[in-house]
TrEMBL record:
Belongs to the UDP-N-acetylglucosamine 2-epimerase family. SUPFAM superfamilies: UDP-Glycosyltransferase/glycogen phosphorylase. It is an enzyme of class 5 (isomerase). This is UDP-N-acetylglucosamine 2-epimerase (non-hydrolyzing). PANTHER family: UDP-N-ACETYLGLUCOSAMINE 2-EPIMERASE. Its EC number is 5.1.3.14. Keywords: Isomerase. It comes from the Bacteria. It comes from Amedibacillus dolichus. Residues 24-361 form the UDP-N-acetylglucosamine 2-epimerase domain.
Length: 369
Protein backbone atom coordinates (compact mmCIF):
# COMPACT_ATOMS: atom_id res chain seq x y z
CA UNK A 1 0.00 0.00 0.00
CA UNK A 2 1.39 3.38 -1.03
CA UNK A 3 0.31 6.71 0.35
CA UNK A 4 -0.18 9.60 -2.02
CA UNK A 5 -1.11 13.13 -1.00
CA UNK A 6 -2.81 15.48 -3.46
CA UNK A 7 -2.23 19.12 -2.52
CA UNK A 8 -4.09 22.01 -4.13
CA UNK A 9 -5.75 25.28 -3.29
CA UNK A 10 -7.58 27.03 -6.12
CA UNK A 11 -10.58 26.30 -8.31
CA UNK A 12 -8.76 25.11 -11.45
CA UNK A 13 -6.40 22.84 -9.54
CA UNK A 14 -9.34 21.26 -7.73
CA UNK A 15 -11.29 20.67 -10.95
CA UNK A 16 -8.32 18.97 -12.60
CA UNK A 17 -7.21 16.97 -9.56
CA UNK A 18 -10.73 15.69 -8.82
CA UNK A 19 -10.67 12.93 -11.47
CA UNK A 20 -7.36 11.63 -10.09
CA UNK A 21 -8.70 11.67 -6.54
CA UNK A 22 -11.79 9.75 -7.66
CA UNK A 23 -9.70 7.17 -9.50
CA UNK A 24 -7.26 6.82 -6.58
CA UNK A 25 -10.11 6.26 -4.13
CA UNK A 26 -11.07 3.14 -6.07
CA UNK A 27 -7.51 1.80 -6.17
CA UNK A 28 -7.00 -0.82 -3.44
CA UNK A 29 -3.22 -0.38 -3.54
CA UNK A 30 -3.28 3.33 -2.80
CA UNK A 31 -4.06 5.32 0.28
CA UNK A 32 -5.13 8.67 -1.11
CA UNK A 33 -5.03 11.74 1.13
CA UNK A 34 -6.16 15.23 0.19
CA UNK A 35 -4.70 18.43 1.59
CA UNK A 36 -6.05 21.81 0.54
CA UNK A 37 -4.34 25.12 1.16
CA UNK A 38 -7.66 26.87 0.43
CA UNK A 39 -5.81 29.70 -1.30
CA UNK A 40 -9.32 30.08 -2.68
CA UNK A 41 -12.07 29.51 -0.14
CA UNK A 42 -15.52 29.71 -1.71
CA UNK A 43 -14.39 28.88 -5.24
CA UNK A 44 -12.52 25.82 -3.95
CA UNK A 45 -15.37 24.67 -1.73
CA UNK A 46 -17.75 24.72 -4.69
CA UNK A 47 -15.55 22.27 -6.56
CA UNK A 48 -15.00 20.05 -3.51
CA UNK A 49 -18.74 19.88 -3.06
CA UNK A 50 -19.42 19.23 -6.76
CA UNK A 51 -17.02 16.31 -6.81
CA UNK A 52 -17.82 15.07 -3.26
CA UNK A 53 -14.26 15.47 -2.00
CA UNK A 54 -13.66 15.92 1.73
CA UNK A 55 -10.11 17.07 2.45
CA UNK A 56 -8.13 15.29 5.15
CA UNK A 57 -6.27 18.52 5.90
CA UNK A 58 -7.43 22.07 5.27
CA UNK A 59 -4.89 24.86 5.84
CA UNK A 60 -7.60 27.50 5.29
CA UNK A 61 -5.07 30.17 4.33
CA UNK A 62 -7.11 32.54 2.14
CA UNK A 63 -7.05 36.20 3.16
CA UNK A 64 -8.46 39.18 1.27
CA UNK A 65 -5.48 41.11 0.01
CA UNK A 66 -3.21 38.07 0.17
CA UNK A 67 0.07 38.47 -1.69
CA UNK A 68 2.32 36.03 -3.49
CA UNK A 69 4.70 36.29 -0.55
CA UNK A 70 2.05 35.73 2.10
CA UNK A 71 0.56 32.71 0.30
CA UNK A 72 4.02 31.16 -0.13
CA UNK A 73 5.21 31.69 3.42
CA UNK A 74 1.98 30.58 5.10
CA UNK A 75 1.93 27.37 3.06
CA UNK A 76 5.56 26.61 3.87
CA UNK A 77 4.81 27.07 7.58
CA UNK A 78 1.49 25.26 7.75
CA UNK A 79 2.09 22.41 5.34
CA UNK A 80 5.32 21.27 7.00
CA UNK A 81 3.70 19.61 10.07
CA UNK A 82 1.05 17.98 7.86
CA UNK A 83 3.68 16.43 5.61
CA UNK A 84 5.77 15.40 8.62
CA UNK A 85 2.78 13.71 10.18
CA UNK A 86 1.56 11.95 7.03
CA UNK A 87 4.89 11.21 5.33
CA UNK A 88 3.33 10.31 1.95
CA UNK A 89 5.29 8.25 -0.57
CA UNK A 90 4.45 10.87 -3.21
CA UNK A 91 2.98 14.33 -3.25
CA UNK A 92 0.85 15.31 -6.27
CA UNK A 93 0.58 18.95 -7.24
CA UNK A 94 -1.13 20.48 -10.24
CA UNK A 95 -0.25 23.24 -12.66
CA UNK A 96 1.25 26.57 -11.73
CA UNK A 97 -0.41 28.43 -8.89
CA UNK A 98 1.42 29.68 -5.85
CA UNK A 99 -0.08 26.80 -3.87
CA UNK A 100 1.47 24.45 -6.43
CA UNK A 101 4.90 26.00 -6.13
CA UNK A 102 4.94 26.45 -2.35
CA UNK A 103 3.63 22.92 -1.73
CA UNK A 104 6.22 21.40 -4.03
CA UNK A 105 8.97 23.39 -2.35
CA UNK A 106 7.76 22.29 1.08
CA UNK A 107 7.69 18.61 0.01
CA UNK A 108 11.16 18.98 -1.49
CA UNK A 109 12.54 20.39 1.77
CA UNK A 110 11.27 17.23 3.47
CA UNK A 111 12.70 15.05 0.68
CA UNK A 112 9.28 13.73 -0.30
CA UNK A 113 9.06 12.99 -4.05
CA UNK A 114 6.74 15.14 -6.12
CA UNK A 115 4.62 14.27 -9.13
CA UNK A 116 3.60 17.26 -11.22
CA UNK A 117 0.25 17.02 -12.99
CA UNK A 118 -0.10 19.24 -16.08
CA UNK A 119 3.64 19.58 -16.44
CA UNK A 120 5.61 21.25 -19.20
CA UNK A 121 3.27 24.09 -20.21
CA UNK A 122 5.40 27.05 -21.20
CA UNK A 123 5.32 30.51 -22.70
CA UNK A 124 8.97 31.25 -21.84
CA UNK A 125 7.91 34.81 -20.94
CA UNK A 126 8.71 35.22 -17.27
CA UNK A 127 5.97 37.80 -16.63
CA UNK A 128 3.27 36.28 -18.83
CA UNK A 129 1.39 34.73 -17.25
CA UNK A 130 2.66 36.09 -13.95
CA UNK A 131 3.64 34.41 -11.69
CA UNK A 132 2.48 31.13 -13.24
CA UNK A 133 5.20 30.76 -15.87
CA UNK A 134 7.99 30.77 -13.33
CA UNK A 135 5.95 28.80 -10.77
CA UNK A 136 5.61 25.90 -13.21
CA UNK A 137 9.23 26.07 -14.33
CA UNK A 138 10.33 25.88 -10.70
CA UNK A 139 7.99 22.97 -10.02
CA UNK A 140 9.57 21.12 -12.96
CA UNK A 141 12.94 21.51 -11.27
CA UNK A 142 11.53 20.17 -8.00
CA UNK A 143 9.54 17.20 -9.35
CA UNK A 144 10.42 13.54 -9.74
CA UNK A 145 7.59 12.61 -12.12
CA UNK A 146 6.15 14.86 -14.82
CA UNK A 147 2.67 14.23 -16.22
CA UNK A 148 2.60 16.21 -19.45
CA UNK A 149 -0.83 16.68 -21.03
CA UNK A 150 0.45 16.71 -24.62
CA UNK A 151 3.45 15.84 -26.74
CA UNK A 152 4.24 19.56 -27.00
CA UNK A 153 4.46 19.97 -23.23
CA UNK A 154 6.55 16.77 -22.97
CA UNK A 155 8.92 18.17 -25.59
CA UNK A 156 9.35 21.37 -23.56
CA UNK A 157 10.48 19.26 -20.61
CA UNK A 158 12.85 17.21 -22.75
CA UNK A 159 14.33 20.44 -24.12
CA UNK A 160 14.98 21.53 -20.54
CA UNK A 161 16.98 18.37 -19.87
CA UNK A 162 14.41 16.37 -17.93
CA UNK A 163 14.91 12.63 -18.36
CA UNK A 164 12.57 11.00 -20.84
CA UNK A 165 11.83 8.12 -18.45
CA UNK A 166 10.36 10.56 -15.91
CA UNK A 167 7.95 12.20 -18.40
CA UNK A 168 4.55 10.68 -19.18
CA UNK A 169 2.19 12.03 -21.82
CA UNK A 170 -1.18 11.49 -20.17
CA UNK A 171 -3.67 13.90 -21.73
CA UNK A 172 -5.18 16.63 -19.59
CA UNK A 173 -7.38 15.68 -16.64
CA UNK A 174 -9.57 18.68 -17.61
CA UNK A 175 -11.09 16.38 -20.23
CA UNK A 176 -11.64 13.67 -17.60
CA UNK A 177 -13.48 16.32 -15.53
CA UNK A 178 -15.60 17.46 -18.49
CA UNK A 179 -16.95 13.94 -18.78
CA UNK A 180 -18.26 14.13 -15.23
CA UNK A 181 -20.39 17.23 -15.75
CA UNK A 182 -22.14 16.67 -19.09
CA UNK A 183 -25.91 17.13 -19.04
CA UNK A 184 -27.99 17.27 -22.21
CA UNK A 185 -31.11 18.58 -20.42
CA UNK A 186 -29.44 21.58 -18.83
CA UNK A 187 -31.30 24.68 -17.57
CA UNK A 188 -29.97 27.77 -15.82
CA UNK A 189 -31.51 31.08 -14.88
CA UNK A 190 -28.76 32.99 -16.76
CA UNK A 191 -29.66 31.10 -19.93
CA UNK A 192 -33.31 32.07 -19.43
CA UNK A 193 -32.21 35.69 -19.09
CA UNK A 194 -30.29 35.40 -22.39
CA UNK A 195 -33.59 34.28 -23.91
CA UNK A 196 -32.21 32.55 -27.00
CA UNK A 197 -29.85 35.40 -27.96
CA UNK A 198 -26.26 34.57 -28.86
CA UNK A 199 -24.28 34.28 -25.63
CA UNK A 200 -20.78 35.64 -25.12
CA UNK A 201 -19.31 34.02 -22.03
CA UNK A 202 -16.71 36.25 -20.39
CA UNK A 203 -14.16 35.47 -17.66
CA UNK A 204 -11.12 37.50 -16.62
CA UNK A 205 -8.85 37.31 -13.62
CA UNK A 206 -5.14 37.26 -14.59
CA UNK A 207 -2.79 39.37 -12.52
CA UNK A 208 -1.06 40.78 -15.61
CA UNK A 209 -4.45 42.07 -16.84
CA UNK A 210 -5.12 43.94 -13.60
CA UNK A 211 -3.00 46.88 -14.71
CA UNK A 212 -5.20 48.38 -17.40
CA UNK A 213 -6.00 45.24 -19.41
CA UNK A 214 -9.33 44.67 -17.69
CA UNK A 215 -10.51 48.20 -18.51
CA UNK A 216 -9.73 47.61 -22.20
CA UNK A 217 -11.55 44.28 -22.14
CA UNK A 218 -14.63 45.80 -20.50
CA UNK A 219 -14.67 48.74 -22.95
CA UNK A 220 -14.53 46.31 -25.85
CA UNK A 221 -17.43 44.30 -24.47
CA UNK A 222 -19.52 47.46 -23.97
CA UNK A 223 -18.88 48.55 -27.55
CA UNK A 224 -19.77 45.08 -28.83
CA UNK A 225 -23.10 45.27 -27.00
CA UNK A 226 -23.83 48.69 -28.49
CA UNK A 227 -23.13 47.45 -31.99
CA UNK A 228 -24.95 44.11 -31.56
CA UNK A 229 -28.22 44.49 -29.67
CA UNK A 230 -28.82 40.78 -30.32
CA UNK A 231 -26.02 39.50 -28.06
CA UNK A 232 -26.01 38.81 -24.34
CA UNK A 233 -22.87 38.68 -22.22
CA UNK A 234 -22.73 36.38 -19.19
CA UNK A 235 -19.85 37.24 -16.89
CA UNK A 236 -19.34 34.90 -13.93
CA UNK A 237 -17.03 37.21 -12.05
CA UNK A 238 -14.04 35.98 -10.05
CA UNK A 239 -14.25 36.73 -6.31
CA UNK A 240 -11.25 39.02 -6.37
CA UNK A 241 -12.71 42.24 -4.87
CA UNK A 242 -10.69 44.47 -7.20
CA UNK A 243 -12.06 42.74 -10.30
CA UNK A 244 -15.59 42.74 -8.92
CA UNK A 245 -15.72 46.42 -8.14
CA UNK A 246 -14.25 47.42 -11.51
CA UNK A 247 -16.66 45.10 -13.33
CA UNK A 248 -19.70 46.54 -11.56
CA UNK A 249 -18.49 50.11 -11.97
CA UNK A 250 -17.97 49.72 -15.72
CA UNK A 251 -20.59 47.19 -16.80
CA UNK A 252 -23.63 47.55 -14.55
CA UNK A 253 -25.24 50.18 -16.81
CA UNK A 254 -25.53 47.81 -19.77
CA UNK A 255 -28.62 45.62 -19.78
CA UNK A 256 -27.08 43.19 -22.26
CA UNK A 257 -24.44 42.22 -19.70
CA UNK A 258 -25.12 40.05 -16.68
CA UNK A 259 -22.46 39.87 -13.98
CA UNK A 260 -23.08 36.78 -11.87
CA UNK A 261 -21.33 34.92 -9.07
CA UNK A 262 -18.66 32.40 -10.10
CA UNK A 263 -20.51 29.39 -11.42
CA UNK A 264 -20.24 25.93 -9.96
CA UNK A 265 -18.17 23.83 -12.31
CA UNK A 266 -21.16 21.76 -13.38
CA UNK A 267 -22.98 24.95 -14.41
CA UNK A 268 -19.96 26.49 -16.07
CA UNK A 269 -19.27 23.48 -18.27
CA UNK A 270 -22.88 23.35 -19.37
CA UNK A 271 -23.09 27.09 -19.98
CA UNK A 272 -20.04 26.77 -22.26
CA UNK A 273 -22.10 24.26 -24.20
CA UNK A 274 -24.86 26.88 -24.68
CA UNK A 275 -22.53 29.77 -25.53
CA UNK A 276 -21.77 31.18 -28.95
CA UNK A 277 -18.35 32.62 -28.16
CA UNK A 278 -15.99 32.71 -25.19
CA UNK A 279 -13.82 35.66 -24.23
CA UNK A 280 -11.37 34.72 -21.50
CA UNK A 281 -7.91 35.05 -20.02
CA UNK A 282 -8.32 31.72 -18.19
CA UNK A 283 -5.98 28.81 -18.73
CA UNK A 284 -8.33 25.91 -18.09
CA UNK A 285 -11.09 27.23 -20.32
CA UNK A 286 -8.63 27.08 -23.22
CA UNK A 287 -8.55 23.30 -22.71
CA UNK A 288 -12.27 22.78 -22.26
CA UNK A 289 -13.63 24.88 -25.12
CA UNK A 290 -11.78 23.12 -27.98
CA UNK A 291 -13.20 19.82 -26.93
CA UNK A 292 -16.69 21.37 -26.90
CA UNK A 293 -16.19 23.09 -30.25
CA UNK A 294 -16.61 26.63 -28.90
CA UNK A 295 -14.44 29.44 -30.30
CA UNK A 296 -12.31 31.21 -27.71
CA UNK A 297 -10.72 34.62 -28.01
CA UNK A 298 -7.86 34.52 -25.52
CA UNK A 299 -7.49 37.88 -23.77
CA UNK A 300 -3.76 37.53 -23.25
CA UNK A 301 -0.54 38.20 -25.12
CA UNK A 302 0.82 34.69 -24.69
CA UNK A 303 -0.55 31.22 -24.28
CA UNK A 304 0.98 28.03 -22.96
CA UNK A 305 -1.72 26.12 -24.82
CA UNK A 306 -0.59 26.29 -28.47
CA UNK A 307 -2.39 23.03 -29.23
CA UNK A 308 -5.78 24.76 -29.13
CA UNK A 309 -4.51 27.57 -31.37
CA UNK A 310 -3.20 24.99 -33.82
CA UNK A 311 -6.50 23.11 -33.70
CA UNK A 312 -8.15 26.40 -34.75
CA UNK A 313 -10.47 26.88 -31.74
CA UNK A 314 -8.37 29.43 -29.86
CA UNK A 315 -7.17 32.78 -31.09
CA UNK A 316 -4.79 34.92 -29.10
CA UNK A 317 -6.11 38.50 -29.21
CA UNK A 318 -4.45 40.27 -26.26
CA UNK A 319 -6.21 43.06 -24.38
CA UNK A 320 -6.27 45.93 -26.88
CA UNK A 321 -9.84 47.07 -27.42
CA UNK A 322 -9.60 47.35 -31.21
CA UNK A 323 -8.29 43.83 -31.68
CA UNK A 324 -10.89 42.30 -29.35
CA UNK A 325 -13.61 44.13 -31.26
CA UNK A 326 -12.30 43.17 -34.66
CA UNK A 327 -11.99 39.47 -33.85
CA UNK A 328 -15.30 39.29 -31.99
CA UNK A 329 -17.13 41.02 -34.83
CA UNK A 330 -15.65 38.66 -37.35
CA UNK A 331 -17.09 35.74 -35.39
CA UNK A 332 -20.45 37.47 -34.92
CA UNK A 333 -20.83 38.52 -38.56
CA UNK A 334 -19.05 35.94 -40.66
CA UNK A 335 -20.60 32.48 -40.55
CA UNK A 336 -17.67 30.88 -42.36
CA UNK A 337 -15.13 32.34 -39.92
CA UNK A 338 -17.31 31.14 -37.05
CA UNK A 339 -17.65 27.64 -38.50
CA UNK A 340 -13.91 27.43 -39.05
CA UNK A 341 -13.29 28.04 -35.34
CA UNK A 342 -16.09 25.89 -33.96
CA UNK A 343 -14.95 22.51 -35.15
CA UNK A 344 -14.64 20.37 -32.09
CA UNK A 345 -11.04 19.28 -31.95
CA UNK A 346 -9.59 17.76 -28.87
CA UNK A 347 -5.85 18.10 -28.55
CA UNK A 348 -5.98 17.50 -24.80
CA UNK A 349 -6.71 13.80 -24.59
CA UNK A 350 -9.41 11.19 -24.39
CA UNK A 351 -10.61 11.71 -20.82
CA UNK A 352 -8.43 8.90 -19.45
CA UNK A 353 -5.52 10.97 -18.17
CA UNK A 354 -6.17 9.97 -14.54
CA UNK A 355 -5.82 6.27 -15.37
CA UNK A 356 -2.46 6.89 -17.02
CA UNK A 357 -1.28 8.97 -14.09
CA UNK A 358 -2.14 6.21 -11.61
CA UNK A 359 -0.46 3.60 -13.83
CA UNK A 360 2.73 5.66 -13.93
CA UNK A 361 2.63 6.09 -10.14
CA UNK A 362 2.31 2.32 -9.66
CA UNK A 363 5.21 1.68 -12.01
CA UNK A 364 7.31 4.16 -10.04
CA UNK A 365 6.41 2.64 -6.67
CA UNK A 366 7.13 -0.90 -7.87
CA UNK A 367 10.49 0.12 -9.27
CA UNK A 368 11.50 2.02 -6.15
CA UNK A 369 10.05 -0.38 -3.53
C1 LIG B 1 -5.09 32.20 -8.50
C2 LIG B 1 -3.79 31.74 -9.15
C3 LIG B 1 -3.92 31.72 -10.66
C4 LIG B 1 -5.16 30.96 -11.10
C5 LIG B 1 -6.37 31.50 -10.38
C6 LIG B 1 -7.58 30.67 -10.73
C7 LIG B 1 -1.73 32.36 -8.01
C8 LIG B 1 -0.69 33.38 -7.81
N1 LIG B 1 -2.73 32.68 -8.81
O1 LIG B 1 -5.25 33.57 -8.84
O2 LIG B 1 -2.78 31.08 -11.22
O3 LIG B 1 -5.32 31.16 -12.50
O4 LIG B 1 -6.17 31.41 -8.97
O5 LIG B 1 -8.77 31.31 -10.43
O6 LIG B 1 -1.65 31.30 -7.44
N2 LIG B 1 -11.12 35.28 -3.47
C9 LIG B 1 -12.21 35.06 -2.65
N3 LIG B 1 -12.78 33.82 -2.64
C10 LIG B 1 -12.33 32.81 -3.40
C11 LIG B 1 -11.22 33.03 -4.25
C12 LIG B 1 -10.62 34.27 -4.25
O7 LIG B 1 -12.66 35.95 -1.96
O8 LIG B 1 -12.91 31.71 -3.35
C13 LIG B 1 -10.51 36.63 -3.49
C14 LIG B 1 -9.68 36.89 -2.23
O9 LIG B 1 -9.85 38.22 -1.87
C15 LIG B 1 -8.26 36.65 -2.72
C16 LIG B 1 -8.36 37.17 -4.15
O10 LIG B 1 -9.62 36.73 -4.61
O11 LIG B 1 -7.30 37.33 -1.95
C17 LIG B 1 -7.26 36.69 -5.09
O12 LIG B 1 -7.08 35.28 -5.00
P1 LIG B 1 -5.64 34.64 -5.36
O13 LIG B 1 -5.72 33.17 -5.19
O14 LIG B 1 -4.57 35.35 -4.62
O15 LIG B 1 -5.45 35.02 -6.87
P2 LIG B 1 -6.25 34.56 -8.16
O16 LIG B 1 -6.29 35.72 -9.07
O17 LIG B 1 -7.50 33.90 -7.78
N1 LIG C 1 -14.89 27.71 -13.99
C1 LIG C 1 -15.96 27.48 -13.12
N2 LIG C 1 -16.80 28.53 -12.84
C2 LIG C 1 -16.64 29.76 -13.37
C3 LIG C 1 -15.53 29.99 -14.24
C4 LIG C 1 -14.68 28.94 -14.51
O1 LIG C 1 -16.16 26.38 -12.64
O2 LIG C 1 -17.45 30.66 -13.08
C5 LIG C 1 -13.98 26.59 -14.27
C6 LIG C 1 -13.65 26.34 -15.73
O3 LIG C 1 -14.55 25.40 -16.28
C7 LIG C 1 -12.24 25.78 -15.65
C8 LIG C 1 -11.64 26.46 -14.44
O4 LIG C 1 -12.74 26.94 -13.67
O5 LIG C 1 -12.26 24.39 -15.39
C9 LIG C 1 -10.73 27.58 -14.83
O6 LIG C 1 -10.40 28.29 -13.70
P1 LIG C 1 -9.81 29.76 -13.73
O7 LIG C 1 -10.18 30.43 -15.00
O8 LIG C 1 -10.22 30.40 -12.44
O9 LIG C 1 -8.24 29.51 -13.62
P2 LIG C 1 -7.09 29.19 -14.67
O10 LIG C 1 -7.51 28.00 -15.46
O11 LIG C 1 -6.90 30.43 -15.49
O12 LIG C 1 -5.90 28.93 -13.82
Amino acid sequence: MYKIMSIFGTRPEAIKMAPIIHAAAKDPQLESIVTVSAQHREMLDGVLHAFSITPDHDLNIMRHGQTLQSITSVILEQLTPVLEQERPDMVLVHGDTTTTFASALCAFYLQIPIAHVEAGLRTYHRYSPFPEEINRQLVSRLSTLHFAPTQTSAQNLLNEGICEKDIFVTGNTAIDALRLTENGQYHHEALDWAGGHRILLLTAHRRENQNGGLEHIFHAVLTLCERHPDIRVIFPCHRNPMIRSLAHEMLDGCNQIRIIEPLEVYDFHNIIRHSYLILTDSGGIQEEAPSLGKPVLVLRDTTERPEGVKAGTLKLVGTQEERILEESERLLNDAAAYAAMSNAANPYGDGRASERILAALHAYFEKNA
